[in-house]
Amino acid sequence: MASKGDNVIVPGTKLEKFLCMKGGRGESSYASNSQAQALHARSMLHLLEETLDGVKLNSPEIPFVVVDLGCSSGTNTINIIEVIVKHISKRYEAVGYEPPEFLAFFSDLPSNDFNTLFQLFPNYGGSMEECLAADSHRSYFVAGVPGSFYRRLFPSRSVDVFHSAFCLHWLSQVPEGVMDRRSTAFNRGRVFIHGAGEATAGAYKKQFQADLAGFLRARATEMKRGGSMFLVCLGRTSVDPSDQGGAGILFGTHFQDAWDDLVQEGLISDEKRDAFNIPVYAPSLQEFKEVVEANGSFTIDRLQVVKGGSPLVVSHPDDPAEVGRAMANSCKSVAGVLVDAHIGDRLSQELFLRVERRAESRANELLEQLEFFHIVASLSLA
Ligand SMILES: C[S@@+](CC[C@H](N)C(=O)[O-])C[C@H]1O[C@@H](n2cnc3c(N)ncnc32)[C@H](O)[C@@H]1O
């Protein structure tokens, strides 16, 4: 684990060593800032259920295995697994069988806050007696699986359903060249691909293609024949990769300006800023499709772009202070750990304070413009 303030986001560094969403249940934790993802997931439940309807049901004596990849720490993953278990149970019942036993794997990078996640399970929150009593009517068994989904995580042909929501836009590393002053892909003055030059954008795109290809190779081996995969990630509607849409507004406007503030105020050097880049890439539908087709192992049952809405959930949209706080917390819950690792906790606090102030001063505009689009893919083995 890198110590705080080390320059850890160096070219080629595998982010999987320390990337995670903000853990715990505090104000800027992922657990407290993932209501927007919950709403977006809910709006796509019918698409998930359509995928589940296509899954082959094996004999009910064989446990049904479901995996959530990039589960993070919050209730979203638990809710989704419950939807899947209930839906598949109903399908068994509809054909006159008792449902099988279910095994649910919650998987994320090793630095994910699995402790908070497991404490959020409904059956585990109470007393020991309640816990033991719940054991008799638990509808599925659970296990945590630490590791990168860009590589193998499960035995061959062992998984019926893979689910992954709001994850595949996270790259395995900051692309080669993006933080190298001698490279044409150097992203001078910027901390994200949004608004970057062609070579930088090309390096991000190449990294996304390589990562998604690795993901598909691993799943093609792990999935049972007749199984299915439901994937949702940030996507963009523009053909130009340097226009990242909602992700561009999240990381390429107030967040970017806050880094520039730190440089202008002499709190960090411009080299330090240029040595940081957000490893996120929102692909276009076409880019996503090309990688799936090149892999060749999967049939595309569904592939579309869905309008997701805003990542900011605010109770008083006309209160600029609340909008500013929501924007800072939203950025911090997903990128705070990377920022802390790069400039240390104290400067990180300064940075997010500036994000908050800047967002507050442009609250209306932000609410109007900040909108996510998602790529939704339903894939089964060809
Ligand atoms: C925005 S969260 C999504 C959480 C959850 N699926 C939900 O719906 O709320 C993205 C998650 O992807 C995980 N992630 C990013 N890269 C990963 C990788 N290479 N392998 C496994 N998990 C990864 C992050 O650690 C994070 O927990």
From TrEMBL:
**UniProt-listed GO biological process terms:** methylation
Q: Return the InterPro entries for the record.
A: MeTrfase_7, MeTrfase_capping, SAM-dependent_MTases_sf
UniProt name for this protein = Uncharacterized protein
Which Gene3D superfamilies does the protein's record reference? Methyltransferase, alpha-helical capping domain (1.10.1200.270), Vaccinia Virus protein VP39 (3.40.50.150)
Q: Which GO terms describe its molecular function?
A: metal ion binding; methyltransferase activity
Give the highest taxon in the source lineage: Eukaryota
Say which species the protein is native to.
Punica granatum (Pomegranate)
Give TM regions: none
